[in-house]
Specification:
By secondary structure, this protein is α/β, with parallel strands linked by helices. It is 33% helix and 21% strand. Helix 1 links the parallel strand 6 and strand 7.
């Protein structure tokens, strides 16, 4: 995501000079020191939520610092479980950001689902595949709570339908959801059996953050408003900071179509919903991805949100953001209740 509000970096003359900078968002120094100004308010789980939604923060892995925020709506019966990954180019963002707290509490209420919002490790301190590993470890943790009958987590586990688990995310979080799902579904993969009794029923990819060495038309020509959440230079910087050293944008984690769609056939992805924004520089790349998934035999539901750009659902950076966000939530509700 690009700047929400510009901030001044505090230590501009220390740490041996600047290695990489994304204005207002991130500064990485030559010695490895990283600064992230507070561009979005961090809120506790006790902040006012959508009516009827309970939220708590839970520790998943003390060793890596992995934690998540749980959202439980007051609905009767067993509910689908949505494991959600926030956006931010793999480099910024938090499950405690106010914009995600608002969006996900509303989604839990309107879509009638339990949501686990994963606070995965960030790059460049933890380059990919660290975020993918955190995603898999979260699923294993959910399985452990379900099988152990933990009293501590009974308040949400007892409401979950373990046969209706969905991986979801926006922007970089959608990339994480996709790559975790491919690890679970690849031919010969043992992970899909390891997470039982959890059953991955679908993936929900909101403006998935992919890239490539060759530019698409929308990347080169889409007119971006001043409030755009993603520009091409910012996208390139995120990939330089998050991919393994020496990798380019045709690395499989960035460009799943770099070597054709054969790999997609082996992924055995569950039914997938892809939400695309009409004014997003990623529009063409997202459409190509949907076409490739469909050709590979994956059932794909493609949704186009007209007149809005990247991350509109959390930034509310246009007059159409609110109605389009309501549309998105209704579409997600329909998808997980098919």
């Amino acid at each position: 995501m690009a700047a929400v509000s510009l901030q001044v970096f505090k230590n501009s003359h220390q740490h041996g000079g600047v290695f990489e900078e994304i204005e207002g968002l991130l500064r990485v120094y030559i010695d490895g020191h990283v600064e992230r100004p507070p561009i979005v308010t961090i809120v506790p789980c006790t902040i006012a939520l959508e009516r009827g939604v309970t939220a708590k923060d839970v520790v998943i892995d003390k060793c890596t610092g992995l934690w998540a925020r749980m959202y439980l709506p007051s609905c009767p019966g067993k509910l689908p479980l949505l494991v959600f990954f926030h956006g931010g180019g793999f480099c910024v963002g938090s499950a405690a950001w106010s914009c995600y707290n608002e969006f996900l509490s509303n989604l839990a209420s309107k879509a009638n689902c339990v949501i686990i919002s994963v606070n995965y490790r960030l790059a460049p301190e933890n380059r990919l595949p660290a975020a993918y590993e955190d995603g898999l470890n979260t699923l294993m943790w959910v399985k452990q709570q379900a099988l152990s009958g933990s009293r501590e987590h009974k308040w949400w586990v007892k409401h979950c339908s373990l046969s209706s688990v969905y991986l979801a995310g926006d922007s970089a979080g959608a990339n994480i959801a996709y790559n975790v799902a491919t690890r679970l579904g690849s031919s010969g993969s043992s992970e899909s059996t390891i997470i039982r009794p959890l059953c991955l029923k679908g993936t929900i990819l909101i403006q998935p953050f992919f890239g490539g060495e060759a530019r698409t038309w929308s990347e080169k020509h889409t007119d971006q408003p001043p409030s755009s959440a993603l520009t091409l230079p910012v996208s390139d910087a995120y990939w330089r900071l998050s991919l393994p050293p020496g990798a380019n944008r045709d690395h499989a984690w960035c460009n799943p179509l770099a070597n054709g769609s054969d790999k997609l056939r082996d992924s055995r992805l569950p039914t997938t919903m892809v939400c695309i924004s009409e004014m997003d520089i990623l529009k063409d790349r997202n459409l190509e991805f949907c076409n490739a998934l469909n050709s590979a035999g994956t059932k794909v539901e493609t949704v186009m949100h007209k007149g809005v750009g990247h991350s509109f659902q959390i930034l509310h950076n246009s007059q159409l953001s609110q109605p389009r966000t309501h549309e998105m939530m209704s579409q997600i509700k329909a998808f997980i209740n098919e």
